[in-house]
Amino acid sequence: MTNNESDSSREWAAQAFALLKQKQELKKQEEQELKKQEEQELKKQEEQELKKQEEQELKKQEEQELKKQEEQARILNQSVSETKIEPEAELGEFDEEFTWSAMVLAAQGKKPNQISIDEIDWLSKLKRGLEQTRKGFVSELLDKLGDDPLTPESLDDLETLLIRADVGIDSTDKVINSLRKKLNEEVVDGEEGIKFLKEELRAIIDEPIKNSGKNILTPQKGKLNVWLIVGVNGVGKTTTLGKLAYLSAKSDYKTLIAAADTFRAAAVEQIKVWGERSNVDVISNQSKNADPAAVVFDAINAANKRKSDLLLVDTAGRLQTKNNLMDELSKIKKIIDKKAPEAIIESLLVLDASQGQNGLKQAKSFAKSANLSGAIITKLDGTSRGGVSLAVAKEVCLPIRFIGAGEGIKDLRPFNSFEFVEALLADK
Ligand SMILES: Nc1nc2c(ncn2[C@@H]2O[C@H](COP(=O)(O)OP(=O)(O)O)[C@@H](O)[C@H]2O)c(=O)[nH]1
Ligand SMILES: [Mg+2]
User: Fold this and answer.
1) Cα(232) to centroid of ligand 1, in Å?
2) Is 334 helix (H, G, I), strand (E, B) or coil?
3) What is the DSSP letter of 375?
4) Ligand 1 test: best mutation among 74, 133, 239, 351, most atoms within 8 Å of CB?
């Protein structure tokens, strides 16, 4: 080979090498690309599988929940139809319970001739209902305080007790800070401490009520008032609505019920029984999975025709993450705006006190998307978590409008912070 020849073949070899190298790189790249794609595909498949599993799990949960609800409704319907007429409350003994209830009424400026057996009965029920909450709270507190002045240590105890009663961190902090400030300024004995504590707790619950400009919630006369009863399944919406219908009709408001929980067949039956008991008509649509907004449409027509004062709307309670509950609510609101633009709408969130912090979570997520105007706390009887009422007022800023403490038609009353705090902190 000449020098020339050798140069050019070297060049040729170099070129070939470069080309081969390029090819190999390309192939490597392609392989990597393919591998990446495969991995992505696999990941996607895994994600889809997981999602499917989650959906199935949710569906199963919902089915179970529905089954439970149907069963509850069946039992409730049975017991409700068996005891259609609630017996009139009877005067009990002249005992400690009566004396306590009477004193709570007197402290609100009522004269002896102004009180009714129903009021006494309710206060006794409320106090009894809050017994569980009180047990782990006031009794222990009073034990700890004794007759001695409050100390920084007793404040630590109080803090623990408040948290345990589901009062919430924000409310607890506020109360403890105020008490600490007071302690720094003066000697505070046990009794005075309790009095101050009551004032602080009342102030927390009263704040959203004051801000709303309405001390208690009543239908405004001369207008159509629409109260939407919302909340997740099983918290007591339908029961509460039945009790509200009774209260409203008894107070001479022309009342009507819309059975807009069309998701379960038994829900319509359940509300009809409550309608019968309170002598209030129920507008419903029997067809399966009827559109709730269509039921509300019919109900508003009827309410307009009859010049009703109050339309109570029962709604479905599927969890908002699973279904379009929020869409359903906004559709209902749109219908009301269109058909009755003058109507005064209240969206009342029903919360089951026994669910404690979980209920608070529900309230927060509903408040974000459902434009709530108030809360109704149910099942205060037999739970130790009655303190959650304070957390709702403080952390969700909702005025509490009614409280329920039992399954009977009379076991719901307008919320009164004085009575609530007295019952919560009663010393016996
Ligand atoms: N102990 C007690 N039970 C209640 C109260 N309110 C409702 N319930 C019960 O809770 C269950 C569910 O109530 P329901 O009104 O059907 O709930 P909804 O699914 O939200 O409509 C029923 O068994 C009711 O009797 C209450 O204040 N106290
Ligand atoms: Mg219901």
Assistant:
1) 12
2) helix
3) E
4) 239
Ligand nearest to the CA of 230: 1
CA distances from 364 to 139, 204, 358 (A): 31, 17, 10
CB under 8 Å to 41, separation ≥6 — which residues?
none
Ligand 1 centroid distance, CA of 168 (Å): 24
Which ligand sits nearest to residue 232's alpha carbon? 1
Residue nearest to atom 17 of ligand 1 (CA): 236
pLDDT at 121 over 70: yes
Distance in angstroms (rounded) separating the CA atoms of residues 267 and 241: 12
| Residue 180: DSSP 8-state | H
What digits encode the pLDDT tens for the residues 183-230?
Answer: 889 888 888 888 899 999 999 999 999 999 999 899 998 999 999 999
Please name the residues in contact with 333: beta carbons below 8 A apart, sequence gap of 6 or more: 228, 345, 371
Q: Ligand 1 center to residue 368 CA distance, Å?
A: 24
Reported as a single tens digit per residue, the pLDDT across 61-76 is 777 777 776 676 666 5
pTM score of the predicted model: 0.80
Ligand with smallest separation from the Cα of 381: 1
Q: 362 and 351 in contact (C-beta within 8 Å)?
A: yes
CA gap 367, 347 in Å, rounded: 10
Q: Are 421 and 202 spatial neighbours (Cβ–Cβ below 8 Å)?
A: yes
What are the φ/ψ torsions at residue 345 (nearest 5 degrees)?
Answer: -100, 135
| Half-sphere CA count of 308, side-chain side, radius 13 A | 27
